[in-house]
Design goal:
two-stranded antiparallel ribbon, 295 residues, 69% helix, ABC transporter involved in vitamin B12 uptake, BtuC, mainly alpha
Length: 295
């Protein structure tokens, strides 16, 4: 059996792959959180519940409408994003001039309500969602076996994160978004409808969570607790990368997922806490995060 630094290569690369998959979900979810905080200054604690809703929409359209995974990948972000827009217009828009704490408390309460409704309807036992036929099977790379679906998750999530970053940093729309975070009144004076832009941005951030939920459905069981089990780690990722930093969310999401996977090989007992240890170290050295403003 081949080894690397005394560790069997199959175990090492297998755990790194699992870490990369987890990192893909961390990146997609933290990207949505960073986008929402960067423009709305809202710490969206309901993001995990919206991720869970995306997975449930995929499960519901499969079991009750007979629609495929690919349809769910298009429909779920639209449905959950539309619900997010309703929440932003009816609730969050009233809190923008108040302290961040009010938005956090409201979204935390929403998360509890959403999770409670789904627990009442479906219980807490996980429901399976099969991998689409087109992505079943895998490839033997010699040093490890790569399941096709997991490879798809990594590639698609990286492309989605890269596309979002390019949209924010390299386009005219992105420049309006970034300007609106600094001086919304000035952007409004140039004829840009800032409230509509803010609403659509929140909807887009929520849609990113829903996409992650759909992609997670075939890997993890679909259940009402799947978001609450993940959101604390994702918040730690956002803090490490820098609140509101798009690039920070992407880089730290993938990077910390890999670190978590490597830790499971080297020192498994620390795998569940390594991200929080990194967060504590980063906050002591760079309180604004690795990519945050103010460093």
């Amino acid at each position: 059996m081949m080894t690397l630094f005394g560790i069997p290569t199959q175990a090492l690369f297998g755990q790194l792959l699992l870490g990369l998959i987890n990192g893909a979900f961390y990146a997609m979810l933290s990207l949505g959180l960073a986008l929402i905080f960067g423009l709305l200054n809202i710490i969206n604690f309901s993001h995990g519940a919206q991720y869970m809703m995306g997975a449930f929409v995929a499960w519901l359209v499969l079991n009750y409408a007979g629609a495929s995974y690919w349809v769910a990948l298009l429909v779920a972000p639209l449905i959950v994003g539309a619900l997010g827009i309703i929440v932003e217009r009816t609730m969050l828009s009233r809190l923008y001039k108040l302290d961040h704490l009010y938005g956090l408390l409201l979204t935390f309460g929403l998360a509890l309500v959403i999770e409670g409704v789904f627990r009442q309807l479906y219980g807490i036992s996980g429901m399976p969602y099969s991998v689409p036929k087109e992505l079943q099977g895998g490839t033997n790379l010699g040093f490890m076996y790569l399941p096709t679906y997991r490879g798809w998750v990594v590639v698609f999530s990286f492309a989605l994160c890269l596309g979002t970053w390019l949209l924010i940093e390299k386009t005219k729309l992105g420049s309006y978004l970034r300007a609106a975070t600094e001086n919304p009144a000035l952007v409004q004076a140039f004829g840009v409808n800032v409230p509509v832009m803010v609403t659509l941005t929140y909807g887009f951030g929520v849609a990113l969570a829903a996409i992650a939920g759909v992609m997670a459905a075939p890997i993890y069981s679909v259940n009402p607790l799947m978001g609450s089990n993940l959101i604390i780690v994702v918040f730690a990722v956002v803090v490490i990368g820098g609140m509101g930093s798009i690039l920070g969310a992407i880089v730290t999401g993938f990077g910390l997922g890999m670190l978590e996977g490597l830790t499971k090989v080297v020192y498994p007992e620390a795998a569940s806490t390594v991200i929080f240890v990194v967060m504590a170290i980063v906050l002591m050295i760079k309180p604004a995060g690795l990519f945050g403003k103010g460093n």
